[in-house]
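User: what does the whole thing look like in 3D?
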Amino acid sequence: MDFNVDITVDMFRALSVLVILWYFWFRYKRRKLNELAARIPAFPGLFLFMGAFQFAHNTSDWLTNPEDTEFVLKNCLEKEDLVTFLKSIVGNASAFAPVSQWIYRRKILAPTFSPKTIFSYMDMVSDESLELVKKLSLDNRIGNGPFSIWKYVSTYTLSSLCATALGLKLSLQDSDVPVIKAVLDIFKLLTNRMVHLWLWPDWLYRRTSQYAEYKKSIGILYGLTDEILKNKRDEICQSDDICNPGANKTQCFLDHLLEGKSNDGSGLTDVEIRDEISLFLLAGTDTSAIAICNTLKLFGKYPEVQEKIYAELISVLGDSDRPLHKNDLKELKYMNRVVKESLRLYPPVPIIVRKTKKEITLPSGTTLPNKTGIIIFIWGVNRDPNYWGPNANCFDPDRFLSPNTNLLTTFSLGPRNCVGYQFAFIVIKVALVEIVRRYKVVGEREDSNIPKINSTFSIMLRDRDGYEISLEER
Ligand code: HEM
Ligand SMILES: *[C@@H]1O[C@H](CO)[C@@H](O)[C@H](O)[C@H]1NC(C)=O
Ligand SMILES: *[C@@H]1O[C@H](CO)[C@@H](O)[C@H](O)[C@H]1NC(C)=O
Ligand SMILES: *[C@@H]1O[C@H](CO)[C@@H](O)[C@H](O)[C@H]1NC(C)=O
Ligand SMILES: *[C@@H]1O[C@H](CO)[C@@H](O)[C@H](O)[C@H]1NC(C)=O
Ligand SMILES: *[C@@H]1O[C@H](CO)[C@@H](O)[C@H](O)[C@H]1NC(C)=O
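Assistant: Here's the predicted 3D structure for the full assembly of 474 residues, as structure tokens:
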């Protein structure tokens, strides 16, 4: 055995001891969080990732206190640089851009989702929801036992987003859509890479079999993005406004993107436009679909909640089968609380990051120096007993009737919150209404008022089994 190997072995031993020590210290410091996270099966891997991340970026402890979180989200708009491979898909698109660029992007995005504009999308979303229930019935899913509803719902959220903001009508419910699976695979592969530290270096990752799969999925995503862009450019040539009928042409997201200016006054490049559209597809499809599916699961667990929603629907819509109008949504107050409670307990995006640009002192008294990375554990924030009360883990839609329930962090808060959140609420509620007015959702009843959805972390927090439920005719 030669000298070099000995050194390597020793170094390896020393490193292992360090890693193990650090791991136990890390577990000890986060024992409360670990308790929270123990409910979510894939979190150990995630914790390891976040530990490495925390180590590399000198971040603060995870935030789970709603008041501190609100303060940070309103005062620190800069994002901590995530590992480059997470950024590589959508480049400098709004969600990841440094503040200096983000300001200009946000100006372009905001009008697309102003309340006036999104309500003009309502009829289109309604149409897509009818396609959804039609497809469920065509596939003989009604009264035929449990099945995974994921594919149907995510197809619906994708086609709603395309038909409205992206101006492309896809007749998706006719067949399986490659991009749905591609998006799911991208999140899965990214998560797998995140929790396996040795897959981080690009040169190594390129040699794995996963890489080919990853490349293929990204290709499918970009394919749709290019189709959307081409569709738009053709349409500009014909100067027609199929993009957003009924509303003003200039309200369309793509028009804004094509006319938008970045920080140096020039227009966005093709790559920048493509990145922004890809981000939309990634940020807007699975998130809303997860929210809808979680709520359906909760309907199965708590049939009395479902019946109360049905009764409210009947009181607003009577027995007509007309599509929903925008004014109906305001009347569905109980439904609104149920959706919020579902989003509180199961935030589709469980973790976000920020970074300080100067020394700040949090309301709780902690002072964070300049350039500290901050990890916000939304899952924990939404279940903090100091804010939500001792029954924070219980499913109780009526908690939103009491004051001090404004800090729902699911869509983040402050100027850099989710730009699509009002749109997401519409997409979620419309689908739930169209399903519940026709069908009864049946699942495993839950006796305890602490619901258990077997969630896993795949960038987003989603059900392990693809949301198996049954539907029965009403
Ligand atoms: C239930 C559904 C959704 C959830 C839970 C959700 C959640 C979030 C969260 C937590 C952020 C991060 C903000 C931060 O880092 O502080 C975000 C940002 C964003 N979301 Fe959503 N989102 C949803 C739906 C949508 C939809 C439907 C769209 C678009 C069509 C969308 C587009 C965006 C964009 C563009 C950003 C980046 C905003 C910026 O940095 O200025 N999201 N979302
Ligand atoms: C890392 O963060 C701690 C507190 O969060 C701070 O005291 C320390 O100065 C930071 N180190 C560097 C190198 O920024
Ligand atoms: C993002 O912006 C930074 C700073 O302007 C630039 O250096 C970088 O190349 C950009 N990244 C991508 C992927 O466009
Ligand atoms: C559409 O735009 C024109 C001018 O660009 C404006 O006068 C009109 O009020 C707008 N209509 C709507 C419905 O926003
Ligand atoms: C914080 O750090 C950044 C980056 O080094 C620097 O540009 C900025 O001036 C610092 N802010 C303060 C208030 O020291
Ligand atoms: C959740 O999933 C894990 C892994 O598939 C399984 O072992 C466990 O029994 C499931 N728990 C419930 C409550 O379904």
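In plain terms: The CA atoms of residues 42 and 400 lie 30 Å apart. The beta strands are 147-148, 351-355, 360-361, 367-368, 373-377, 439-442, 455-458, 460-463, 468-473.
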